[in-house]
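Structure (tokenized):
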């Protein structure tokens, strides 16, 4: 008898310390492990999207595969549901209120629903997990977006111009002192956006190396099918970011300053965000603020190195940096894909898309749609309609920081070319091994 009574309490006590690792394992399995198995199997059967998601070489250069997708028509089936490489179809989906970002999980098998609930952990939530506005539909999306968009109006963005210039010049002065080959991503392309967003969010710039390290690891969670080791590194980074944010919020509640996060933590009760909403919103701003713009700058330098006449035209004022930024965003988009789900049965590209169907939009492919951009693989900073690209998405989720990113791109590149007109790529740039985000991890250059 005594044995039975004694063991009744024991399993819980034994299991408690295992709950964290068990939750992590379930989170990984349902979000990455199962999709990886499924995508690999689809890839072996020849599914184009499965191949794209599982083959690192295709991730490195997806553009030929995008053309194969395009050849199948404006909307085709794949292992990820429907997919499109078409500019007008992607644009229609993004602008339509018949599509949303939320996923109705009621149709999912019970075990999947259980795994999603069990694995849910706010302390490890990534930028694409609810209640991040990126994956939230109205009315909550409207509420979050309104709170942050005040800081990104054209006037507020323009007011950042002197700060961006000052930061760029300071970084370039540091570069002046360097000899030999330099990794331009680490020394410049990553530093500029992280310093700008730190300023905007009132976070201490001394922590910037932490942000860069955390951001680099966490960015991988945007991709489906991460191997366990990379997922664990990403989760560790996310936990560190949430711990940092909790301390940052507490500090600003005690001593609010004149920045966006101070405003968010001191909202009147009627407007106040819950703790989870606050974490999701600021984590997204911090991550989106530098994880994408670094790619714009790096991609631009590599493209302009390969098109030296255009670098010279820009440097001497014969072409404009604003236009160059648009063309870089178009031809090598820092965010390659996004997705939406049909909220009801909807007509799209001549077929009926049943409610609940996922449509993956390859923005990087839509931006090379030959019906919109003649000779789409040709890099041309004078292209008259480059700005029609979908690199910042469209509709209600259109990038809130687009104006700031454009400014950082134009100022950052103009200042770089003015200071180092003879800058050349030296050696082989290394791409980040990511699917959703596209850019360089290492970019060796000589400055003189
Ligand atoms: C070159 C740089 C950038 C690119 C290519 C980019 C791209 C994007 C894209 C494609 C989306 C929408 C994704 C979707 O529709 O599913 C988005 C949303 C967003 N971006 Fe950016 N972004 C950049 C820079 C920035 C910056 C600098 C910030 C902030 C300071 C920022 C903040 C956001 C936020 C908060 C959202 C969510 C908007 C919403 O869901 O309503 N982004 N961005």
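Design, position by position:
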């Amino acid at each position: 008898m005594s044995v039975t009574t004694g063991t009744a309490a024991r399993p819980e006590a034994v299991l408690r310390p295992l709950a964290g690792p068990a939750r992590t394992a379930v989170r990984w399995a349902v979000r990455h492990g199962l999709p990886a198995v499924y995508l690999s199997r689809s890839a072996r059967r020849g599914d184009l999207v499965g191949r794209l998601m599982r083959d690192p070489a295709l991730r490195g250069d997806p553009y030929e595969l995008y053309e194969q997708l395009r050849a199948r028509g404006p909307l085709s089936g794949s292992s990820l549901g429907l997919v499109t490489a078409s500019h007008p179809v992607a644009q229609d989906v993004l602008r339509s209120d018949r599509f949303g970002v939320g996923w109705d999980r009621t149709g999912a098998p019970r075990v999947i629903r259980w795994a999603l609930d069990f694995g849910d952990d706010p302390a490890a939530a990534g930028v694409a997990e609810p209640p991040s506005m990126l994956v939230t539909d109205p009315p909550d999306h409207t509420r979050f977006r309104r709170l942050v968009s005040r800081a990104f109006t054209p006037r507020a963005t323009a007011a950042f111009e002197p700060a961006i210039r000052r930061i760029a010049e300071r970084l370039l002065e540091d570069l002046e002192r360097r000899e030999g080959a330099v990794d331009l991503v680490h020394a410049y392309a990553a530093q500029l956006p992280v310093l700008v967003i730190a300023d905007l969010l009132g976070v201490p710039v001394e922590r910037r190396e932490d942000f860069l390290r955390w951001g680099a690891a966490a960015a991988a969670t945007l991709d489906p099918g991460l191997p366990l080791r990379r997922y664990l590194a990403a989760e560790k980074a996310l936990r560190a970011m949430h711990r940092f944010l909790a301390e940052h919020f507490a500090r600003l509640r005690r001593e609010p300053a004149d920045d966006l996060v101070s405003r968010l933590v001191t909202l009147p009760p009627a407007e106040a965000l819950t703790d989870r909403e606050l974490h999701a919103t600021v984590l997204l701003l911090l991550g989106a603020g530098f994880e994408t713009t670094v790619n714009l700058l790096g991609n631009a330098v590599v493209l302009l190195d390969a098109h030296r006449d255009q670098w010279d035209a820009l440097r001497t004022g014969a072409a404009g940096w604003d236009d160059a930024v648009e063309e870089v965003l178009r031809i090598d988009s820092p965010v390659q894909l996004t997705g939406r789900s049909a909220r009801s049965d909807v007509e799209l590209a001549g077929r009926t898309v049943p409610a609940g169907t996922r449509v993956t939009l390859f923005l990087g492919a839509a931006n090379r749609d030959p019906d919109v951009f003649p000779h789409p693989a040709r890099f041309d900073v004078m292209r008259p309609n480059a700005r029609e690209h979908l690199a910042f998405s469209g509709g209600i989720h259109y990038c809130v920081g687009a104006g700031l990113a454009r400014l950082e791109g134009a100022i950052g590149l103009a200042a770089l070319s003015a200071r180092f007109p003879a800058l050349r790529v030296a050696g082989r740039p290394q791409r980040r091994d990511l699917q959703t985000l596209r850019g360089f991890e290492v970019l060796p250059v000589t400055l003189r």
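Reviewer-requested clarification: Confidence is low (pLDDT under 50) at residues 1-9. The domain at 19-446 is CATH 1.10.630.10 (Cytochrome p450).
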